[in-house]
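Order emerges. One example.
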Amino acid sequence: MVVQKLRSLDAIDLFEALNPAERAAIEKQCRWKTYSPNQVIVEKGDESTEVFFILDGDVRIANYSTTGRKITYATLGAGEFFGEIAALDQRPRSASVAALGGCALLPCRPRHSPTWSTRHRPSQPS
């Protein structure tokens, strides 16, 4: 798979309430990164607190049982994100994440995720 770096947060639903200038400001503060197939992005227990926005490709979120069996929690693709739990609770990673194929991500540290986390919430149906 050839990874196409989209270089835009426009496809991430979480940012739809932000105007283009606000999205551009977040993009400028974060670093774009590509991962090869099966490359580990984060390991369970890591101390990092970045939130990863998936711009292209797919990732697998998994853990291991006490018997050593791999348990896949989710497969996420373009437009989705992961890592928000560690960003919010500031605790070690609760699962491992690896690229399924090549993928392009935008990792952002919590300090680079300003008011969108509290100010822009999706509207709830009534």
